[in-house]
Each structure stands twice: as structure tokens, then as C-alpha cells.
Amino acid sequence: YPSEFLMQKITEDNQIPVHLHVSVSLQYVAGLKGNALIEFFHGNIAEVENEELRHLMWSSVLFYKTPNVEVMACVLLSTKAIYFLLDDSFIHADEHQSDFWNRENSDCENSSFHLSCCFVLKLNDLQSVNVGLFDQYFRIAGHTADHIVTCLTRDSYNTHTFIQQLMAVLSLLARTPSPEPVDKDFYSEFGSKNTGKMENYELIHSSRVKFIYPNEEEIGDLAFLVAEKMDSLTDLQSLNILLYVLAFQVNHVEGSAQNTSLLQPKTLILTSSDLFLFDEDYISYPLPEFAKEPPKRDKYQLADGRRIRDLDRVLMGYQTYPQALTFVFDDVQNQDLMQNLTLDHFGE
């Protein structure tokens, strides 16, 4: 340790997504290569002398206590813990976080010293990992609300790679083995005999950490929700969700210094007849065991919806990934066509 292969891989992975802006301190981390990166980890982040860095990933993250603040992080997986090296702008984003972060280094603010916060989740405290639909994100959960983090990779490959590395590292943990399970048939293993309803697919790792994957019913629930937002004549049987992807909606800000673009996280859902943008709660569902009441907002909230037949053209940017798409819709003269998307059932 470190092997040449590991150093090469971590160096390749150490790239900030081009569409996301980060602070100077994280730009410094992204500039490190090979051995310098390993030394930086052991000198500044690692808590134990003999732990090994196994994987590095850049991702947007959400915390359970601050579900509205998405922040860029460098996620480092070692043989002892998962470290989230956070953009220092995150600390100022929400005044309710002062208890959460308990920051004492405010005297550093005006100096040339760039500070980053590092959130640590020890592998021994890890209880479950929930993988989101189509591997677009995953949620890591520990014992308390402070230990629930969602990584919005927006990329199935990054999600898959991280989960594989995490399973490999968890296999090294010395935990007391679980009692041997009684042999069960498929139906009693995955279903409740009382209801005949399939539960979410769970894989219990040898370290006793649960890896929970969505089942077909989640897509069914999503299709039902989408059908509610569409014309009431829609036949649910014929409704197919063709695409589910976590994306950003670009809001162009005119008049600012550089005509900057604000990126708003959105869930894009494409059906055979409509295109929808939802605001999705990626951190609160499924409810953690300690939750006393449901979250304040629904998992999916409709932000916009348009019919495909009103789509005039799609403009594609020429830059490499991430690709920018502009959907141009015809102006609909008769607004009644869209009323079911905007009406509030309980409003006036």
C-alpha cells in the first residue's frame, strides 16, 4: 500500500465535475496527484495511522438535517471510515447548522488560510445503504439523524463503483457474525405471506450492513403519481416511464458580472406522452427508524410538466459531458389543456 494501480485510479478519479463550482480549498485537493494525494490523506484527514485510502469520488451530498442544501464534496473511502471533505461555503449556507458543525475556527476566515470541514462516518457506525432508482444516488445511514448522508452521483457507474468498494472494505471489518439464517424459500424470503406484497430487495452484507435496492413497485408508485398529474383519461396500464434521470435545470441570470447560470437540481421523468420535472426529496425516504413523524414535504413535488406533442425542437450543446439540452415548446393558446398540472385540488 499504496499500489501503483490504486494511485493511478485515485488520481484519475480526482476530478471535479466541470459544471459545479467549488471553493479554493477543494480546488487545491483536486490538483493533487498520486503520492501527494495519499500523503495529503494521511497528513490531514485520516484518524488512524494504519488505515488505507481505497477509493475517491467527487459528488454532491445532502445531509438529513439540512435537506435543502446540496453541497459539493470529495468523498474518501478508507478501511476505517467514509470522509466527506466539504466546500467551506456550506457552513454559511444555513444558520441552523451552527449546532451541527460546532465551528470554532472563525478566526481563520479573513486570513489566506482556506478551511474545509470534514464530516466523518465510521464504518462501524454504518447501518444501511439505500440505492436510489436506476443507481442515480445512494443514501448512507448510521444510528442518528447526524449520520445520514445522500450522495447524488447522478451517474450509475459512480454509484456502482462506490458500492462495490464499500462492500469490499466492509468485508475487512471484524464484527461478531450474525446467527445462521434458517433456510427459506424465495417467497418467504422476499415477501410477506399476509399481504403477498414484495418488499424492497435487501442484501445483508457479512458485516451486517443492509444494502437496500428499489423493487418494481417503486416504479409502479412513480407511474401512478405521474398519471395523477396527467390527463385523467390516461390508462395506467399503457403508461410507461421511459427515462428517470437526476439532472439540473439551468436558470440563466442576466445582468450579473458574468451572466452566470444557476443550476437547480431536478428529477426528469419522460413518459411516452409527457415530460416532467419534479423536486424530489432524496434524503428523507424511506423513513429512518428513529423518525417520529413523516417529512414536511412529499417525496415528489411537480415543478413543471409539458406534453411531448407540444415539443417544437430540442437544442443540443456542443460541449462534452455533461450535455446541455434545451427543450423548446410551442406556446399553448388554450391554457385549459395544462390545467391539471397546475390546479391545486385543495385550493380555490
UniProtKB/TrEMBL annotation:
Keywords: Cytoplasm. Pfam families: PH_NISCH_C, PH_PLEKHM2. It is found in: Cytoplasm. Residues 241-347 form the Nischarin C-terminal PH domain. GO terms for molecular function: kinesin binding. One of its GO terms (cellular component) is endosome membrane. Residues 114-178 form the PLEKHM2 PH domain. Its main location: cytoplasm. PANTHER family: PLECKSTRIN HOMOLOGY DOMAIN-CONTAINING FAMILY M MEMBER 2. This is NISCH protein. It comes from Psophia crepitans.
